[in-house]
Input
Amino acid sequence: MTKLKRLDHVAVLVPDLDQALAFWQDRLGLSLDHVETISSMAVKIAFLPLGESEIELVQPTTEDSGLAKYLSKRGPGLHHICIETDDISTKLAELNEKGVRLIDQEPVLMDDGRQLAFIHPKSTGGVLVELYQLP
Ligand code: CO
Output
């Protein structure tokens, strides 16, 4: 079975980044590394490193994206966890073989060379799980 390496990040969906940072940064004490706007995904993400992992605060930047609809329907809170693997294609094939429902059948290649794919929460007991293979 393809090895999983570490928890890469936990993503929290928020309606307002500044308001969320007032807790995660100012009150709890995590450090803000940077904020990135990803227009192709209509989100703004704040990255807060924590050991070998990160907390990602994700704010939708439009009203009509899937994430924005999710936020207005279910409210803010935990959105997904992300686990790093060395070989995402093999991992997806293994999961498929075991009848696990995947959102992405094939890895999605990002601009920075990262590959990612999501596993459907129907197959995980309600947790949206993202897989990463870093370049
Ligand atoms: Co993620």
In short: The radius of gyration is 15 Å. The pocket of cobalt (II) ion is lined by residues 9, 11, 56, 80, 82, 130 (CB under 6 Å). The beta strands are 4-13, 34-38, 43-50, 53-60, 77-85, 108-109, 115-119, 129-133. Residues 4-133 form a domain with the 2,3-Dihydroxybiphenyl 1,2-Dioxygenase; domain 1 fold (CATH 3.10.180.10).
